[in-house]
User: Fold these one by one.
Assistant:
Number 1:
Amino acid sequence: MSEVVVSVRNLQTTFHTRVGPVRAVDGISYDIGKGRTLGIVGESGCGKSVASYSLMRLIEPPGEITGGEVLLHGEDVLGLPDAQMESYRGSRMAMIFQEPMTALNPVLTIGYQMDEQIMRHTGLARKASRERAVEMLEMVGIPSPRERYESYPHQLSGGMRQRAMIAMALSCEPEFLIADEPTTALDVTIQGQILELIQGLQERLHMSVQFITHDLGVISEISDDVLVMYAGTACERAPTQALIDGPRHPYTVALLESIPRLGQRASRLPAIGGMVPSLYELPAGCPFQNRCPRVTDECRAARPSMRALAPGHEVACFNPVTA
Amino acid sequence: MTPLLRATALRKHFPIRKGLLLRETGRVRAVDGVSLEVRQGETLGLVGESGCGKSTLGRTLVRLYEPTDGSLEYKGEDLLAMRGERLRSMRRHIQMIFQDPFASLDPRMTVGQILAEPFKVHGACPPGERQDRARMLLDKVGLKSSYLNRYPHEFSGGQRQRISIARAMALNPELVVADEPVSALDVSIQAQILNLLKDLQQEFRLTYVFISHDLSVVDHFCDRVAVMYLGRVIETAPKDELFASPKHPYTQALIDAIPRVGAGKRKMKAALSGEVPSPIAPPAGCHFHPRCPRRHDGCERDFPRLVDVGGGHRVACNLYEESAAVAQPRSQPIPGLGART
Ligand SMILES: Nc1ncnc2c1ncn2[C@@H]1O[C@H](COP(=O)(O)OP(=O)(O)OP(=O)(O)O)[C@@H](O)[C@H]1O
Ligand SMILES: Nc1ncnc2c1ncn2[C@@H]1O[C@H](COP(=O)(O)OP(=O)(O)OP(=O)(O)O)[C@@H](O)[C@H]1O
Ligand code: SF4
Ligand SMILES: [Mg+2]
Ligand SMILES: [Mg+2]
């Protein structure tokens, strides 16, 4: 494997809510090599965004990172002084947020916000940074970029806002990029263009990427490895093709089966039966037990930990599906 | 039969203002002459590239935006002329699920309050029962009722999206304009929500305008599809017909570009070349001509109308302008194009 850039060790993030602590991320570990892409998939609410915010140290009270390490080239960013973290954020590590409006200021123009970011991290003067911003807006396929530079966020369409944020995150050429559902609001043609842009930058800068998406089509196009999450935990990790060809965790199997396919004529889509357990009332043992067709007594008694079934293919399950 | 909703030559332009005097220096032609019908009980899919005007059209259809021009009828009645009490009661029947749940949920209200709000506004349900109804709604979208006392920021993106779906469904509306309602959801929950929307439709004869950029979801969920490009509808057809034989070169490219699971890591092909045009300065003639692989002589000049090519399939492309005059039987391929494989 190539040189490891990002190494997440047993990360744990807890929200201290009114009704008690909630472990939104409960001990996940993974590595991302230089120039490599890790895709993360998992059901809504399973902790993908919270894990990403944790890596960027953007968790706010009542949330707290309660354990683990996040190593960037061997240096634990969780232990960095705030000022240093501030300078890493945006330049060395950047994040594309799932909901653009969480990251964009509604009362400032897109251009102003991009300029601030570019000037802070690259030292370019305003005029040069403006050129760079317009160029980035053009690269993410926003028509009339000069006019759009002057727009406020609400004057852009949903997909344009998302792209403006992508432009902002990429403008400083980070070595590690976290993309949280970066193409959810985008149609396939523009999505293709964005993925190409990210891949292009990746080739040129050997950027490492953590790519969160629920679109398994996109995952298979862009990522080298995939991490599957369930209720705050990791349940399977494997090279992309191996995961798609031979998923071993019962949840992954169900997930792959529920993809609507073009031309599929069933009147109802196959959903995974049952509900994700609330993080407030997680059962002892395997978090997937209440929906799992392969559940045994062992699953109710103990939490399965990740173990390798094949080189690079790890599964947290007592009764993995046979390959 | 009168359609539930009929839009005729609908336009919504946004002025671009500059300088201290905020002089109008141009216009964003977000919706630029859309005519369409939504029939009672059907699901009309609205697809098209980012920025083509889908959300603006959706908001105009539910009267959240005043159109710049054009007319809008609901069950044959002029929707734009409605005022006061009449409009208020109309609003109860026409709901919208917004594309950006983060921005559309009030951050100072708990989920319980958000879901009880529609009942309060329309006096629809006795105060004592509102919390129960709210709990039921949450349950329907697959969220625990213990979430009622939490605030929007305490949820994940997909959970927030489901809250806004629950809110739109609170008053048993007749027409729901759903703007990318499942885009933030993983496939399994997406399936759960789509199944729920289908059940509600069957139970209450609901009508949907379903905005989505995900064509496989549209293929599964919609009865008819309208494809938009730069503020206009350029093709509409029954769903099966559209996916089996798309006529407009843009629709063809769109369907071609759908990523497929298991295709392996590879360079995505750029399905459409050429610069994405801007609704601030749309190209003359057919708006699509600068990017069109089948462009021919007249396209830079002639503005194609939406014409019927048979079987309820309408397309706005100069390739079909003549063929429309002689009504084509449905099975016969259009000269020079043939059926795509
Ligand atoms: N501020 C908060 N307080 C309490 N709980 C929170 C808070 N933020 C997130 N959570 C909970 O943590 C869990 C993980 O949320 P997260 O946003 O990481 O999910 P996700 O995997 O990104 O889901 P989605 O695909 O829907 O975006 C969710 O159950 C959510 O309700
Ligand atoms: N309030 C506004 N003021 C000015 N321009 C606007 C406003 N709302 C939308 N626009 C512009 O109108 C055009 C159409 O936007 P709209 O949001 O309808 O697109 P969309 O098809 O929904 O795109 P997406 O798929 O990205 O959500 C865009 O160019 C957008 O910038
Ligand atoms: S550990 Fe048991 S319950 Fe969990 S996924 Fe495996 S078989 Fe199912
Ligand atoms: Mg998320
Ligand atoms: Mg939109």
Number 2:
Amino acid sequence: MRHSLTGSILAHRDLGDAQFEMTVLAPDIARDARPGQFLQALYVGAGGPLMRRPFSVFHADPEAGTLAIVYVARGAFTIGMSALRVGCSISLVGPLGNCFVPDARPAARHLLVAGGVGAPPLYFLAREMVAAGHAPKSICVINGARSRDLLVAGADFAALGVTLRETTDDGSAGRRGTVADELRDQIAAGGPCSAYACGPTPMLRAVGSLCVEAGVACRVSLETVMPCGLGVCMGCVIKLRNEAEPEGHSLVRSCHEGPIFDASEVIW
Amino acid sequence: MPDLTVSLGPLHLKNPVVTASGTFGFGSEWADFYDLSRLGGLTTKAVTVLPRRGNPMPRTAETASGMLNAIGLQNPGLDAFLAEKLPYLRRFDTAIIVNIAADRIEDFVALAERLDGQPGVAALEVNISCPNQACGGLEFGVDPALTSQVIGAVRSATALPMVAKLTPNVTRIADIAQSAVDAGADALSLVNTYVGTAIDARTRRFRIANRQAGLSGPCIKPLALLAVWRVAQAVKAPILGMGGIMNATDAVEFLLAGASAVAIGTANFINPMAAVEIIDGIEQYLSQTGAASVQEIIGAVQPAI
Ligand SMILES: Cc1cc2nc3c(=O)[nH]c(=O)nc-3n(C[C@H](O)[C@H](O)[C@H](O)COP(=O)(O)OP(=O)(O)OC[C@H]3O[C@@H](n4cnc5c(N)ncnc54)[C@H](O)[C@@H]3O)c2cc1C
Ligand SMILES: Cc1cc2nc3c(=O)[nH]c(=O)nc-3n(C[C@H](O)[C@H](O)[C@H](O)COP(=O)(O)O)c2cc1C
Ligand code: FES
């Protein structure tokens, strides 16, 4: 169920490199949020933004009633948000959208592919999978960015005990190259596997086509502008393959039917 | 308790707050937030005869205190509306106002004929801000004669209460309003969005694929308020006022300017509870100011000095 509430900021950590982790007391949303779902956030401030912005749930603690987001301060909204202090309130609507569902085959390896600020929902997924009894070693997180300072949630993934492979375009951390390079090797290692990806669209397209060619199931979480996030404005549509339509695709709401889609169905 | 009931001609509302077309889908997305029966009315997204795919993305952009949209009327079409959307809406005790759009008068007529007599439909809102195919894409609502033709044609096709939704992108909106009323509109709704655009200096590209888009939100409120007041002065027809209403105070201002009811649009995106908070806020305002009913404040604005 979706909730519209005002939550108190319990913690707001500067993670360095313009990254922030914000923890909010929001029991109703914390109880209902699933990995891959997002929130529409808004804060009040002088000359502040008018419209909400979407942020993935980084993790949720139903017992404590808290949830966290991790974000990069990069535009007017997120820079303003980074100045909010502990004790301030923030308005949240959520949880919204669909969620990642782990591959249920017992021997499956789970390849979680994160690009930059796409890491938060995959951290939530990894954490929930470990909590649900998946062997940490069956989960391989491929976390990539242009450079070391743009990697998100590296230490958090490591703390889960999952297999962690980092890639950077410039080689400043982990393997020099892209997440797709690492993913190709992981798929080649053999055995049944599934991929779950979130990051910039060009990365998702590369990851998606790699998986489609290799016959690996791949779910991608797409990023679009989301004026409402609630499925009513039609401002967030993406193209999904649909042979029944004369154009060969339908236009579906990424906030409502998504943000997670089957890579094989997305028309990039 | 103050009396909240109002009328838009033959359309009776239990309170003066309606959701605006295109900002509330077909209602079902709101089920978690509040009981739709609390609303005075609910206006659907535009319904066209055939499904519409809408414009290419990007379709929206935030601007200073507002947003631009060029959705392009993406909707499932009349058949799907009747089969899949209307049955859901029927169960609520609220006035369902169906916003209809077309680029040919015949299509407006076809829509009105099919919707006439459908259980659950309380009124039609005729979106005359649409480009008219027969006139090289000129909008019906910018020309008094075209307005009169389309409203007259819909009038002959339905006995349902009919609201003409006016575009503000005209020199003299009161003239268009008068044509609509003369042609048989029971009420007027105004304003639709103001045309505008946005450009990204960094990428040197338009921020909207369609280039031209419609501006809504708090930035248009002063413009919309004046349009409502002007039309209320000039034309004897009830008005559904809208344009940048974010809270109950904004809503009261529209009522004072002469609107008999108000519609909540962009505010739904910012605060999903906006419409019900505005109903409660209007009631509170009436109680605190000793007014016995909404009727008392409609058009009650006084000169500044
Ligand atoms: C489902 C979903 C989940 C999301 N989850 C997260 C999340 O968990 N964490 C997160 O950080 N973000 C997330 N986002 C993205 C987040 O919503 C955007 O980061 C946010 O909209 C940015 O808003 P802003 O106003 O700060 O930036 P804007 O000003 O709107 O900028 C948006 C983009 O334009 C670029 N840009 C703008 N101006 C310039 C400039 N002058 N020079 C260079 N680049 C520029 C920015 O790099 C940025 O990528 C998510 C998006 C979606 C759709
Ligand atoms: C995303 C969006 C879609 C809209 N779609 C329609 C529509 O289909 N038909 C219509 O008559 N008006 C449409 N409108 C206009 C609104 O109903 C309303 O007239 C306008 O937005 C001004 O009110 P506001 O400032 O409160 O949003 C749309 C507005 C928005 C923001
Ligand atoms: S953001 Fe409005 S429909 Fe998806």
